[in-house]
Amino acid sequence: MRSVTLDGAHPRAGWLARRLRLAVSAIALAFVLGAPRVRALDLDATDGINTETIASRERQTEWDPARRQGVQSVKETDRAFGKPDGIRSGNYLIFPEAGAAVVFDDNIFSHDIDKVSDVRSELTGGVKMQSQLPRHVLDFSLDGKVVNYLENSEQDYANVRARLDGALHFDHAHTLSASVMSAIEHEERNDPSVPLSRQAVTAEGPIQVFHNRAAVGITRDVGRLYGTVAATVESWDFSDVAAIDGRPLDQDARDLVRASSMVKFGYHFSPGYQFVGKLRAYGDENRGNLQLDGDAFGYEAMAGLAFETNPLLRWRILGGYGVRDYEQSGIASLATTLLEADVQWLPTQRLTIYATLARQIVESADIAASGVVQSAARIRAEYEIYHNLILTGGVELREDEFSGVDRSDTIYAARAGLEYLYTKNWLFTFGYEHQVRDSSIDSLDMHRNRFMFGAKLRF
């Protein structure tokens, strides 16, 4: 608990004043700009809201050269034969599912010192009620996951999540959308957000997090000009946990409330050629402690072009600037250029190749750092071996530069997967991942291999 202020005011009063200021700032940003993850400002994210209008749905057929010519990537190919039909109930289709997976991980704690391997099982289940209303959308879903380790049972946990998504298409050009989500999640010891620095005390097992989010937005998309304005409030409440040595770890200082706003806009110059712009702003209210307070404001803006050299080669190139400003004087502010360059190539009907170059600001995995400037290059391919058998593979090279501390990480990763649509009801998946972290701090170096097999029953 924070100490009483010098003028004698109760510390709760200061906390409430800052919470009120955060709320006012969020409302102002929503009017000026128009939403988010605790880890990074995802400029493409819509936080669950529906940004499709009746007019935009019609324009896709008329203005997209690839759609007019029937060009589809592997993931866009219609595979209705391998998807469940659902259970009809009035204006809803109900999709229940249950799944199981087995994962062998040769480094479950993501560091090479005292490397530990184990096998874990993952049981998943859920139900989605998908609306079939004539014009509007009101969907519900409930899902969960239970994870159990064969030998390290202290790492077991169970997640559950409930979500509601709605969209009101109140005329041809406009859509009013909302999304509400509430979940009990767990932060694993190998999660990138868990503090890895030498100053942090490691938790014995996963940390329970109460995660809630509410988002609302409005989209106008008709003709050549389109745009979305949205606002989101999201919170993370961390539960206390025991340390490896048995001592209690108070996680209250990590509790966070984030209010954010987003605006996305664009202009279609011609079929297959458009200008794209997006802005995000947020304010963080971090509970903190006597030593560290993570209250911050952030802004990111990007603009560029999305176009098609031809229907088989699609590009998107955006550049911009990002700022993360912390209120506590001891935490360094962060400002950097941003980049997002994507290309999608369809060399054959059965093969799609994706390449990405990106530079972004993400949350720090180091408790002493104010943020991370992350630069990454990725290549991924999807190949249709058969109409119901899809092979995927990819490689990634990433550089994480930590702000405020002397640390940098280079991450190499290679992934491969196989998806087998056995029937409408049965889906089988196979996967492999190899990951290497080469850190300027030797104790954080990591080599890791994961092998996965899963099955899912869908109705």
Topology, pairings included?
Elements: H1 11-32, H2 54-63, H3 65-68, E1 87-89, E2 92-105, E3 118-131, E4 137-149, E5 157-168, E6 174-187, E7 207-222, E8 225-238, E9 241-242, E10 248-249, E11 256-270, E12 273-286, E13 296-310, E14 313-326, E15 334-348, E16 351-362, E17 371-386, E18 389-403, E19 408-421, E20 426-439, E21 446-458
Antiparallel strand pairs: 1-2, 2-3, 2-21, 3-4, 4-5, 5-6, 6-7, 7-8, 8-11, 9-10, 11-12, 12-13, 13-14, 14-15, 15-16, 16-17, 17-18, 18-19, 19-20, 20-21
Global shape? globular
If you compute it from the alpha carbons, what radius of gyration comes out, rounded to the nearest whole angstrom?
23 Å
User: How would a textbook summarize the main sheet?
Assistant: 18 strands, antiparallel, barrel
What is the N-to-C succession of helices and strands? Answer: HHHEEEEEEEEEEEEEEEEEEEEE
Poorly predicted regions are: 1-43, 195-200
> Helix proportion of residues, in percent?
under 10%
- Overall tally of structural domains: 1
| Beta-strand content bin | over 45%
CATH class assignment: Mainly Beta
Quote the average pLDDT: 84
DSSP summary, beta strand count: 21
CATH topology annotation: Porin
The computed structural class is mainly beta
Q: Which architecture per CATH? A: Beta Barrel
State the gist of this model.
With 459 residues, the chain is mainly beta. The chain has helices at 11-32, 54-63, 65-68, and strands spanning 87-89, 92-105, 118-131, 137-149, 157-168, 174-187, 207-222, 225-238, 241-242, 248-249, 256-270, 273-286, 296-310, 313-326, 334-348, 351-362, 371-386, 389-403, 408-421, 426-439, 446-458.
